[in-house]
Amino acid sequence: MIGFVLDxxxxxxxxxxxxxxxxxxxxxxxxADGEEALVPAIWSLEVANTLVVSERRKVxxxxxxxxxxxxxxxxxxxxxxxxxxxxxxxxxxVARRYRLSAYDGSYLDLAMKTALPLATVDTAxxxxxxxxxxxxx
Length: 137
Prior knowledge:
By secondary structure, the chain is α/β, with parallel strands linked by helices. The protein has helices spanning about 10-15, 20-30, 40-55, 60-75, 80-85, 85-100, 100-115, 125-130, and strands spanning about 1-5, 35-40, 75-80, 120.
C-alpha cells in the first residue's frame, strides 16, 4: 500500500551519514517495514544529479554510489510517470501558486493528486504542502 509521496530531499539524506536525521531515518524505517512511497518521474533525475555532483566533489565515490543505488533499489518506491504529462499545466500551476521550483511543484502536485502526505526536509516545500492542505509525514 502506498503511504506517502517521497521527496528527493529525504532520499538524499540517506546517502551521507552526516545528513541523516531522526526524521529521515523514520521515513526509511517505514519503507523497510513495507510501506510504499510514490515519487514523480523527476525524482530519479534529482537523485542521479546529486550522486554525480557528489562524486565530482569527491564527497562520494562511484563505489559508494553503486552501493547506495543497490540499497535504494530494494526499497518499495514506485515512480509515477504521469507528472511528465502534467508538467506544462498542473505542475506549472502548482509551482506558480506556491512559489516553488517546477521540480518541487511536481512533488506537491503528486501529493495533491493522490491525497497522500509528503515526506520532505525541504522547508519551502513543507510549508507549501501545509498551505495546500497536504499532510507532511
